[in-house]
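Objective 1.3, modelling of assemblies. Example input:
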Amino acid sequence: MDISLQQVGYLYAKDSPFEKRALQDVTATIPSGSYTSVIGHTGSGKSTLLLHLNGLLKPSEGIVKIGDTTITAQTKGKQLKDVRHRVGIVFQFPEHQLFEETVEKDIMFGPINFGVPKEIARDRAHELVKLLGLPEEVLQKSPFELSGGQMRRVAIAGVLAFKPSVLVLDEPTAGLDPRGRKEIMELFHRLHDTENLTTILVTHSMEDAARYSDRIVVMHEGTSVMEGTPEEIFSQQEILHSYRLGIPRSVRFQHRMEKLIGRKLGRLALTEELLAQELAAAVRGKGDRPC
Amino acid sequence: MLEKMIIGRYIPGNTIVHRLDPRSKLLFVFLFVIAVFLANNVASYAVLLVFTAFVIALARIKPYFLVNGLKPVLFLIVFTLLLHIFFTREGPIIFEWKFIKIYEEGLRMGIFISIRFLVLVLITTVLTLTTSPISITDGLETLLNPFKKLKLPVHELALMMSIALRFIPTLMDETDKILKAQLARGSDLSTGSIKERIQAVIPLLVPLFVSAFKRAEDLAVAMEVRGYRGGEGRTRFRQLSWQMKDTSVMIAFIVLVAVLAWVRK
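Predicted structure (tokens):
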């Protein structure tokens, strides 16, 4: 499902003394099946932007198109339920949304709201718990007895359970330990491929953006300022710097290395693996070619 | 979603109303609430309305903003007005249509009580709009100090109040976040039968309570870690100072009461 934003603007508390502009003239396209990262400094409007992706906020100006549904300031609330079924959002610290008596019931909450029969919802809960690497016993436990990392996984299962075709992730790994972080990011990556999802990742981690996504949208002070592939975006270090954004560690390493050896590597090392390959190639190549 | 509510909200500003000592403002509001009951005829209610409008103008609050923010309260006021109009049966009938009969006394009482209600809400809203919650509690604590002799835990009460006020915006934000998360999971608060709607509130309330209790615990630990031991021997960073303008507020109040006493029946 293609998503497109056309000159979207948003004002918080419109027409009151607290009125505050959060978005201005945001234009971006997210093609169906892509893995798009949205990066930007704190307060750049990333989180406000993602609330527009399933109609939780309606644009004050401009148009948001999600598949064949068009959302403008005038769109009525009733049309939005279907959009919310197709676009699942995993919010920051999603464990704060847990409320049911048991994990099983909590995971079933979303699907039942969207009209999935109880039995199928229950099956999905069982599958998802396994998929997320939780022991099956947790299904009958209260979500509040679990550890922080487990709660996070249950909350993510609660969103995956209604099988959205677009998955929006708002810093899904914030506050997790490095290992849990990697596991969850790998899981989303796998799901993106196997379930044919359109994934939108809002993140502060340039490494995650470089490793997983095939498109990047850069936000700055409420406006979308850059759009392109990770190679295109991360090769423009100076411009990114002016938006107070860095580049992935591996690219930084590559730049210093290139300075030291006085030679350019073949391509941008977006991940550590790529960096290792390129370095190895450079080292091997040294014997053949004079530099 | 909840961003339009203005009850209990503070808007920083630099008008004379903002700069008054919280004690004079609190004292004034307290006395004003009593004085409102002096009014009993058209002239005295007019005096109250004019005075309230004057205070709002002094505080530079946009009337449009007040009306918008107080919509739920205005609804209540209109409801009171209608109750009085239709259920008071005194005086001559001034309007009759089928079974509806409106009596003069009903209309008069309805309008008077609505104005009384409106004036009270407006003045207290001006107080909270122009005084930061911290100043309000500071002022209240000082004003209540004499009651310490009667073993009233004044400092603790003030602390409880300031913590409660401090966490209203935090909990509002939290509610908004949880609401959005549940809406994204297809929860629906605006359709269905009354039973369904009440049930739809549970996914909102449970997480809110859980996080409120967690916050309370964290706060208690943070206070204890920093050696909080109650109000004994505590000094203040912000000193309250009673100035000429605060005395004039009290004089203004006396004048208001005198005028009310003069014009009332």
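Chain A touches chain B at residues 12-13, 15-18, 51, 54, 56, 77-78, 81, 84-85, 88-89, 91, 94, 96-99, 109-110, 113-114, 144, 158-159, 162 (CB under 8 Å).
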